[in-house]
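Format notes (please read before filing issues)

Several people have asked whether sequences and C-alpha cells are stored in separate files. They are not. Every record keeps both together, in the order shown below: the sequence lines, then the C-alpha cell lines. Line labels are part of the format and must not be stripped during preprocessing.
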Amino acid sequence: MVLSYSLAEKSEGTFNLYDITGRLINKYTLTEGENNSLKITESNLTNGVYFYSIIVDGSVKAHNKIIIVK
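Then the structure lines:
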C-alpha cells in the first residue's frame, strides 16, 4: 500500500497504524515537502481490519480503517 501526501515546510507528521484492539502496530514519520509517498508493507500484517491516524503538528488530520485481505 502506498500513501501519497504533501506536508507543509517545518511541519511534523506521523502515520500511526493500529490493530483492531487499538494497539499501535507501527508509527511512520512523514517527511515535509510536496508529492511524497509512504510505502506500508503488508507482508507482515495478517488479514483483518486495521485503523490509521495521520497526525500533523499534534492534531489528527485523518482517521480511517484499512482492510487487509491476502
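For reference, the curators noted about this record: The two ends are 12 Å apart (CA to CA). The chain has one domain: 2-68.
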